[in-house]
Amino acid sequence: MGGPGGRWIGGQGQPPRRVCGAWARRHWTGRGPRAARGGESGPAPPGPRAAGPRGGPRLPARRRSSACLLGAPQWWSPGAGGQEAPRMCGWRLLLLWGLLPGAAAGGSGRTYPHRTLLDSDGKYWLGWGQRGSRLAFRLEVRTAGYVGLGFSPTGTMAAADIVVGGVAHGQPYLQDYFTSANKELKKDPQQDYHLEYAMENSTHTIIEFSRELHTCDTNDKSITDSTVRVIWAYHHEDVEGAGPKYHDSNRGTKSLRLLNPEKTSVLSTASPYFDLVNQDVPIPNKGTTYWCQMFKIPVFQEKHHIIKGFSYPPHVGLSLGTPLDPHYVLLEVHYDNPTHKKGLIDNSGLRLFHTTDIREYDAGVIEAGLWVSLFHTIPPGMPEFRSEGHCTLECLEEALEAEKPSGIHVFAVLLHAHLAGRGIRLRHFRKGDEMKLLAYDDDFDFNFQEFQYLKEERTILPGDNLITECRYNTKDRVGMTWGGLSTRNEMCLSYLLYYPRINLTRCASIPDIMEQLQFIGVKEIYRPVTTWPFIIKSPKQYKNLSFMDAMNKFKWTKKEGLAFNKLVLSLPVNVRCSKTDNAEWSIQGMTALPPDIERPYKAEPLVCGTSSSSSLNKNVFLKLFLCFMSLSSTLGAKSL
């Protein structure tokens, strides 16, 4: 808007100016926030205008042209809960422009370090950033109607936390909603989203708002380090009295980790790189395919560090070019094709940036958790079942004492399971004390897996041990779920990125299978074992069945499943402790007991946020407004 005969134009972060007596497009710099990942950058919406209510106080006729020349704004200032604070059109308030939140023509002037495209048509861009205990959002959507954003436990409308905003008839609005388990949309009596800026033109709507990470409103979802299933929608019409109209197909979901800021390295545009890319790989029309392709690493005359793809910390890089480094690399791609679609071709791969400016430390990676095998068993019909993979004290102690007694420093973790996975935690123990979780994802999504950057590096010392704890749901399955490569099989793994590199690649465990079979009544197997899976000899009900068939024949109930889970978590484990060249540490194959946890870690309670900051902005504005009104009245009286 902007008053009779004009719209606001101005550069990024510059005061707006009005072109009088003619329509004008605001200059768009195109300098939007860089994408958090993948270098995404959104198309610039053409000509957004600042939203301002119509009908503000009119200037006297003798001053109207001066107001136009001075660029007097007709603006909206945010109040707590999306309420309107006082607004006014007049040159007397020009001095206030730089003091008010949401005043810049291109937005509030705040930065949003993360940015991603939510739809496949380039119409809905989301930017976000953490500010202390609050999370701020910027929505840029190709619509002149309402825009909606939500957080859902399942990626559907059920039990979701939703915010809807827009600009209707020059009036900005932002409303907090929630849905019940049956997807009924209701307005939240506690409005926890705070509007900071709103802009609209004939094609685009831009909304900026914030909320506390933890509102302690039962209708809101707390935002943590776990995966967040973001749901989105928009409509070509604004919200009316009856609430938002149905969005039809203008909706979707995308999993994100909102509190996982990538510590991106600043790279020169001339930074060298090389690609590891598959060429026209035909994806088979079957459920699961692991495609392995060997690549030769470029020959370097001196040591290089890989520093980007995943962005390593500024003091760490992945070493290449020395006699200890690989000359070839195996790229393994996991294709999941559940509908057995034909004719799919893949040309994806990796681009790795490297440098001769050697960093202080070489990076390494350790696989920790459950060794992938059929000895990892999960009964059917279980709404919750826990598995644990142990990176044992014995393995870590032997490797660290030999290679780095002062310990290694972990800076990122990837947590991995398959389709039955619901949550994963990487627990850390030292001398009987459980320390703060190394990493966790309580809302695991198989289709969204990435390294979590740790907020602060964590040190692993000789004598420590790690447990990768996985939570599964097999409620809808009728047969056993086994450890294995297929997505219908399961895994329970953590991948630790750390420095300095030591000669340890795998620190895992396998639970004892015979004690698992004893739970279902197996007494004896045929020995020596000559077939796989091995065959049961007694009792009669399982005679000549493989152990897999016997486990599936057992009548699993929820009660039996819970008892089995308790047993498995207490079983001795076989230690797997591998070196980088497929050699083994001496502890490999030995039996260890799960650790005694003398003092479990107690998580700090969530602290609920308040809206004091929004109230403060409003109160400050009111005081400034009254002050300047008083001053302008005095000046006006003197000029008469």
UniProtKB/TrEMBL annotation:
Chain spans, region Disordered: 1-63
Q: What is the lineage of its organism?
A: Eukaryota, Metazoa, Chordata, Craniata, Vertebrata
Among SMART domains, the record links this protein to: DoH (SM00664)
Please list the residue ranges that the record marks as compositionally biased, kind Low complexity. 49-59
User: Which CDD domains does the protein's record reference?
Assistant: DOMON_DOH
Q: Name the SUPFAM superfamilies for this protein.
A: PHM/PNGase F (SSF49742)
| Keyword annotations from UniProtKB, A to Z | Copper, Disulfide bond, Glycoprotein
Similarity annotation: Belongs to the copper type II ascorbate-dependent monooxygenase family.
Q: What is this protein called?
A: Monooxygenase DBH like 1
Q: DOMON domain: which residues?
A: 122-235
